[in-house]
Amino acid sequence: MNYNINALDFEGRTALHKMVLNNRLECVVALLSRMADVELVDNSGNTALHLAARGKNPAIVQALIVFGANINALNGEEGMTARHIASSQSSGGVGGGDNISDRILYILHAVGAARCTLDMPGCGVGCRAGGTWNGTPPPVPIGAKTRSA
Known about the structure:
By secondary structure, the chain is an all-alpha fold. 34% of the residues lie in helices and 0% in strands. The chain is built from 6 helices and no strands. ANK repeats lie at residues 11-43, 44-76.
């Protein structure tokens, strides 16, 4: 079969971009495992990770990172990283921490996503230079046991 897994639509989006936007984790993983290019940008300069940071599925963010997404890539028009995008939607530690964007921010922080070097417009506490808010870790699964040192 001859096909281009990275074919673009009129918005410059690939199947991977579309599946991220439609919150289809299984399809995202299938495309990534078949070598879909995780770094292609759409007409607005967004990678799949930028789109996922706006979404509400931390597992998609994790999958993109595992398959090599550049966690510090800047999107084209706005010059924002995925961390900046997630931080702009985060509760900033106010409101109980049940915000899914708080979990996405934590995932990005845990793998070393950089904070903004300068305060950008809309820069939340999760990406502001010198800030200390890094998101909310995911809940501990039921029945999970913690280790003691």
